[in-house]
Amino acid sequence: MMEENVASEMNGIQERKARIAEFMHDKAYVPMKFKELAQVLQVPKSMKRELKRILDELLEEGTIGVSSRGRYGPAESFALAGTLDVNPRGFGFVHVEGREHDIFIPAEKMKDALQGDHVLVILEMEEGSKRAEGRIVRVMERNCSEVIGTFHKKRTFGFVVPDNQKITRDIFVPMEKSMGAENGDKVSVRIRSYGDERKKPEGIVNEILGHAHDPGVDILSIARSYELPMSFPMDVEQQLQQIPDDISSEALEGRLDIRDWKTVTIDGEDAKDLDDAVTLMKKENRYILGVHIADVTHYVKEDSPLDREALRRGTSVYLIDRVIPMLPPKLSNGICSLNAGADRLALSCIMEIDENGSILSHKIAETVLRVDRRMSYTSVKKILCDRDEALTREYEDFIPMFQMMEELSGILRKKRFARGAIDFDFPESKITLNEKGRPVDIRPYERNTATKIIEDFMLIANETVAEEYFWQEIPFVYRVHENPDEEKMARFAAFIHNFGLTLHVSNREVHPKELAKLLEKIEGTSNEPLISRLMLRSLKQAKYSTESTGHFGLSARYYCHFTSPIRRYPDLQIHRIIKENLHGRLDEKRLAHFDRILPDVADQSSKTERRAEEAEREVIKLKKVQYMCRHVGSVYDGVISGITAYGMYVELENTVEGMVHVTSLRDDYYNFVESEYCLVGEMTGHTYRLGEKVKIRVEGADPLTKTIDFVLYDQEEEEFLHYGSRHKVNRKQ
């Protein structure tokens, strides 16, 4: 019996550890407390201390685990599997599916795990008043085998500092594996050893992207670090050669011909992938709105190389000076783009709408159209709002339609808000780069009448399509936004109570209309930035799903993404379903096929959307830091946009955000009051709150860490310091 032999064979620490580990991994083993284990193993009293040391070492190695009640067993018996998210300061959190709260992992208990790894973690502190804490015992699956970073050259070796701040360990590179990289080069390094607690990971440079200061290399590095595909595979290029540059007469057969309808596209000035066009007419008291979407699936056939690559990419990614498209430019900017004056294939949602914004009837059809004018948001805004004389003369024939569009947009928007749709109007950033890729201007992106028109028309088309296919009970991909977490909403309701505001909650749930009412109530007040930001943080992220569970933020029962198949895969996928349905090809076999593949399509689309958003945010953050590097010492007005125990974030009018560290607040010692999101001085009671206006001076900006430091600006103190400095100089003279 193993139990009888273990104690007698404890004649070497490694052998003893191996024996005990083997014993615990036996299928018949039941987790035991220390005393039970010692008794079963027949360990004499004189050797119990030795047994405890062996158990501690096995625990440290992650070979075994121990429960909260002190029972020892295989690590897998007590471990939870999850995904690691690393904080740049070295610690991390493991997200376990089904657990409400993530597990905190101290820096010294991360083992050799890196950002995004799938890991096994053992709880060492159960959730209570604070948080669950654990340690990683094993990496189950690596998230990254390749890292982008800056190469630093030493005499006999080099090392790479990862661009991703969540990869907190430098990567050692033997000089013979460096490809001749020089100091400051951006490189791609393939990891061949992940090291351990004492040894750095080791890798091989497999590509030099260029020097960090070369134009465009910074954005390229971010794109590569997020594994965004920069080129299309050979089989995709070969398929492209078979796609015509012009529409054939055969492609027009059976389509609704709307080439004589007055049709326009309205997009940003720089847009090249024009996937939506609109028409609007009025018959008596009814609007006839046509939303026409590029028929991408006519060229991108299911399971073709183009289709597989589009699914892999999931979405187009917009990185300020470049677009990483979901589809090759021959399609996205060519035959699929609804370019003015060219015949194009489309899938149209034509809606009859009454004066209250209700859909009376609709038709979804394959169409052929010819766009009359390629309009920009700016030009339409100048026509409708600024009454620009030159543009009014140039587009004289289209003015009545634009005015009607503005009218219908207002009706649809009013109806949507009346049912409770939430509209967060946080400014996006418009960043202008020079020929060297350096930011020369940053300002809020203007959201005007024209952008709202297109937004309203696309929303109503998306809702209409989603509702039809829901009731047809056909497999589909919906855009869903789940109800907020009850606990987060409860905390939010408790917080706004401090401002004399209430939030009506029914059956522990809040209706979006209540939040919309709250936003309306605080509009224009000093508390609006504070409360609207906290409200947004209390909501969940939207995602794709095969179940139509509704869209909380839009207060819509049915919603999908139908209007952008050039740049989003879910739209392309549901176009394929719609067309098969229109042609009567959705038999049992095809329905079963879509039932089988759509969950993976929804999951992949949600993941690639998150990846694109993170990459876009990272590029914007970097360019803002580069911009502020040239404005160190400048003084700006700003608004407190976030508060933590470390200090407060301040957002400037140009959308740049930086931190005022709590250590720079020298007039008092400030404590963070989490329940009220404020910093309170111990001695003075002076309080800093979200939404408060402040004046700051730019203290510093670091492109490496992508951080911007502010200090509060005190004009009197600045003048005193300036005078004192000048006085000292004069005295020396």
Helices and strands, with pairings:
Layout: H1 2-8, H2 13-24, H3 34-40, H4 48-61, E1 64-66, E2 72-74, H5 75-78, E3 79-86, E4 92-95, E5 103-105, E6 118-125, E7 133-141, E8 146-153, E9 157-162, E10 171-174, E11 185-193, E12 202-211, H6 217-225, H7 234-240, E13 256-257, E14 264-267, E15 276-283, E16 286-294, H8 305-313, E17 317-318, E18 323-324, H9 329-335, E19 343-353, E20 359-370, E21 373-376, H10 377-384, H11 389-394, H12 399-419, E22 429-433, E23 439-444, H13 449-471, E24 478-480, H14 486-496, H15 512-522, H16 528-537, E25 543-545, H17 569-582, H18 588-629, E26 635-644, E27 647-652, E28 657-661, E29 670-673, E30 678-681, E31 687-689, E32 693-702, E33 707-712, H19 715-732
Parallel strand pairs: 13-20, 14-21, 28-33
Antiparallel strand pairs: 1-2, 3-4, 3-6, 4-5, 6-7, 8-9, 8-11, 9-10, 11-12, 15-16, 16-19, 17-18, 19-20, 22-23, 24-25, 26-27, 26-32, 27-28, 29-30, 30-31, 32-33
Helix pairs in contact: 1-2, 2-4, 6-18, 12-13, 17-18
